[in-house]
Automatic annotation (TrEMBL):
Residue ranges constituting the Penicillin-binding protein transpeptidase domain according to the UniProt record: 328-600
Protein name per its UniProtKB record: Penicillin-binding protein 1F
Catalytic activity: Preferential cleavage: (Ac)2-L-Lys-D-Ala-|-D-Ala. Also transpeptidation of peptidyl-alanyl moieties that are N-acyl substituents of D-alanine; [GlcNAc-(1->4)-Mur2Ac(oyl-L-Ala-gamma-D-Glu-L-Lys-D-Ala-D-Ala)](n)-di-trans,octa-cis-undecaprenyl diphosphate + beta-D-GlcNAc-(1->4)-Mur2Ac(oyl-L-Ala-gamma-D-Glu-L-Lys-D-Ala-D-Ala)-di-trans,octa-cis-undecaprenyl diphosphate = [GlcNAc-(1->4)-Mur2Ac(oyl-L-Ala-gamma-D-Glu-L-Lys-D-Ala-D-Ala)](n+1)-di-trans,octa-cis-undecaprenyl diphosphate + di-trans,octa-cis-undecaprenyl diphosphate + H(+)
Residues annotated as transmembrane: 15-38
Record has Coiled coil as a keyword: no
Keyword Protease attached: yes
Keywords: Carboxypeptidase, Cell membrane, Cell shape, Cell wall biogenesis/degradation, Glycosyltransferase, Hydrolase, Membrane, Multifunctional enzyme, Peptidoglycan synthesis, Protease, Transferase, Transmembrane, Transmembrane helix
Residue intervals of the Glycosyl transferase family domain: 62-236
SUPFAM superfamilies: beta-lactamase/transpeptidase-like, Lysozyme-like
Length: 720
């Protein structure tokens, strides 16, 4: 093999070390650049490019009630941001944004020089891409390590994300002070308008803020803010975005702040908390989704009713107790749709406080229509005027007693409910069966572990919530149908896609006749029974309830009113959060009854509520009960008749209720004889008296609804 000697040129020999150094530097530069690129891929977590966005709770009319957020941000696409707003930020932050590849070498060199002179990190030469990298992926400490990572991330972004998209991310991540992230939130806060409507000077002002959001706050420091804004305009002139004449004119303008102070609405706190709970429990939205996912949640609140109920809940006269701290709840639902219009989880709740609407408590006698009377009337053998045993009876170790200590022996279902009799309610539950009753309660959404007769009186181990009661009582005003109470009407995701829309799923619980019969009876509770407290002139049906205090004899622990109008179903609870011998109620169920009537009276002034309930088609009406009179003024006189020789006239004062039947009895040896009857009148003529024979008569009032007689009148002796 022949070898040929290759001669190295002399000039190469002379400059070989320089060539080696340069080549090495080039290799190292490429290696460094490659390292920066690889490192950037590791630093950039693309999941963080999905920006946190505030969720909004709003009314059907689009009125914003509140935002839920970790960072108060509304993401806006770059296409909605005017060019002059983009230019303002580019001019002040990164004039060569569209020219560099993520790092501005000139600006960086200048910053490095000044850092070296000061021997510390004193100046930044960051591009918009670098600022975005720092905001999304890194900490804000001023160290060389962080700066290198920032460069790595910026180079990676520039190679993988379009310039316009980088600018979009940047404008949506900037912090503007006052808890505002992103240009849309800042635009709404400072100018009460979307970013798409911002003028050039308004955009320039927003571009002025990121350097020092608090220092340049235009509300607190308008002079500083204007000076900084004018610098932005000057930079726009230098970058060719405006002319000299335009710059002068723009710098003469005032700030144009339109920051309307948002109305404080403490009366919404409980409702908003309820919405959040419903979103989590009913629709499966996590905490992170709610506070970062950018959802739009449309709710059914009626702000008039919500405000009115909050005002009434502040009135101490409706919450008398042994000590301060009497609490209460108020819940009102549209009976037709199931939409929750007002929700007060406490008398003066702050956001995040205990929401007592979701707390279980013993309901007392408000359970009677649900656990006893409704299920019983669904059976053919019972009507509102079926008679119940009202006596002090024992069922094993359980002996229910009437609250007033009096018993009627026998009483109709109607009057038992109206007067809230305990003994007869328990007797009836024993007759229809606990399992039969619990089957209804389960369908109403109350799956109780209790298996005793105390269910009739609301004596439960864990109790029920106001929501349970409103859901259940809705069946009476709506032909026996139940639907789920809800505050959320629709939910949209951050892209505006509908992800939930409430669709009612009615379930038949009671038959329509039962529902209407209960409605009529509960009307009488309000007008003549235990729900008479307070004043409300329009249609209202409902039931009171109270529970015995465990430590203080004859005092109340929990007090309730649950009822409905032709428009609404609602509940009120009054009580203490703690239960001890120092905390008890002084007014029993009268307190929640008064609260409900006061709220409805005020709502009526705004809404014009109905005067009466409308009887549904296909059901029979239920007449009110008959009160039999006590007759003690029976009188008898003799007279001659036209066809008979002698007759007697019996007279007495009749009851105002002309449905009362008066049975006339003649005293006989053995069994007295009923000789006649008259309805609604106070006179009866006895014809064909026997001559020379004395006879004794008396009157007994009779109730045709219950087929029962009252007490005999005084006796009258007719003598010849």
């Amino acid at each position: 093999m022949n070898w040929r000697e290759i001669k190295i040129p002399d000039w190469v020999k002379r400059w070989r070390w320089l060539i080696i150094v340069v080549a090495s530097m080039v290799v190292l530069a490429f290696a460094g650049y490659f390292t920066l690129l690889i490192g950037g891929k590791r630093i950039v977590d693309e999941r963080l490019l999905v920006l946190d966005e505030a969720s909004v709770i709003e009314t059907r009319n689009g009125d914003e009630l509140t935002k839920l957020y970790k960072e108060n941000r509304t993401v806006v696409p770059i296409g909605d941001i005017p060019d002059h707003v983009e230019n303002a930020f580019i001019a002040i932050e990164d004039g060569r944004f569209y020219e560099h590849a993520g790092v501005d070498v000139i600006a960086t060199a200048r910053a490095l020089y000044r850092d070296l002179i000061a021997m510390e990190k004193v100046e930044g030469g960051s591009t918009i891409t670098q600022q975005l990298s720092k905001n999304l992926f890194l900490t804000h400490d001023k160290t060389w390590t962080r700066k290198i990572k920032e460069v790595m991330a910026s180079l990676y972004l520039e190679r993988n994300v379009p310039k316009k998209k980088i600018l979009e991310y940047y404008l949506n991540t900037i912090y503007f002070g006052n808890g505002l992230y992103g240009i849309e939130s800042a635009s709404q806060y400072f100018f009460s308008k979307p970013v798409s409507d911002l003028s050039l000077t308004e955009g320039a002002l927003l571009a002025a803020l990121p350097k020092g959001p608090n220092y340049y706050d235009p509300i607190d420091h308008p002079e500083r803010a204007k000076g900084r804004r004018d610098i932005v305009i000057s930079r726009m002139l230098a970058e060719g975005f405006v002319t000299s004449e335009e710059a002068v004119q723009l710098q003469r303008k005032n700030l144009g702040i339109n920051h309307g102070s948002p109305e404080e609405k403490p009366w919404l706190n409980s409702y908003l908390d309820y919405v959040v709970t419903e979103a989590k429990e009913q629709h499966g939205l996590s905490e992170d989704e709610l506070y970062q996912g950018g959802y739009r949640i449309v709710v059914s609140v009626d702000e008039d009713v919500q405000r009115i109920s909050h005002e009434v809940m502040q009135m101490d006269q409706y919450f008398p107790g042994s000590a301060e701290g009497v609490q209460g709840t108020f819940l009102l639902m549209d009976q037709e749709t199931g939409e929750i219009l007002a929700a007060q989880g406490g008398r003066n709740n702050e956001r995040g406080d205990l929401n007592r609407l979701l707390e279980k408590r013993q309901p007392g006698s408000v359970m009677k229509p649900l656990a006893v009377y409704g299920p019983a009337l669904d059976l053919e053998q019972y009507t509102p005027y079926s008679l119940l045993v009202d006596q002090k009876l024992s069922y094993g170790d359980y002996t229910p007693t009437n609250y007033d200590g009096t018993y009627d022996d026998y009483i109709s279902i109607y009057k038992s409910l109206m007067l809230s009799k305990n003994a007869s309610a328990v007797w009836l539950l024993n007759e229809i069966g606990i399992d039969y009753s619990k089957n209804y309660l389960e369908k109403l959404g109350m799956d109780l572990e209790d298996n005793g007769l105390s269910i009739a009186l609301g004596g439960l181990k864990k109790g029920v919530t106001p929501v349970d009661l409103v859901r259940s009582y809705r069946t009476f005003i709506h032909d026996g149908e139940m639907i789920e109470p809800h505050s959320i009407v629709e939910i949209y995701d951050k892209d505006g896609e509908l992800v939930h829309k409430y669709e009612p799923k009615p379930e038949q619980i009671f038959n329509p006749q039962t529902a209407w019969s209960i409605t009529r009876m509960l009307e009488s509770v309000v007008t003549e029974g235990t729900g008479r407290s307070g004043t409300y002139e329009k249609a209202l049906a409902g039931k009171t309830g109270s529970t015995q205090h465990p430590y203080v004899d004859k005092k109340t622990k929990d007090a309730w009113f649950v009822g409905f109008t032709p428009e609404y179903v609602g509940s009120v609870w009054v009580g203490y959060d703690q239960s001890d011998e120092k905390h008890y109620l002084n007014d029993g169920s009268a307190s929640p009854t008064k609260v409900m009537k006061e709220v409805l009276t005020r709502v009526d002034q705004v809404k014009q509520l109905e005067d009466s309930f409308t009887q549904p088609d296909g059901v029979e009406d239920v007449p009110p009960p008959i009160d039999l009179p006590v007759i003690d003024d029976l009188d008898g006189t003799l007279s001659f008749g036209s066809l008979t020789l002698l007759q007697a006239e019996l007279t007495w004062t009749p009851a105002q209720d002309d449905r009362v039947v008066y049975r006339i009895y003649r005293e006989e040896d053995g069994q007295d004889e009923r000789i006649g009857e008259v309805e609604g009148k106070g006179r009866y003529t006895i014809k064909r008296l026997t001559l020379f024979h004395d006879e004794t008569y008396y009157i007994v009032p009779y109730d045709p609804l219950t087929d029962t007689e009252g007490s005999p009148s005084n006796q009258v002796r007719v003598e010849w």
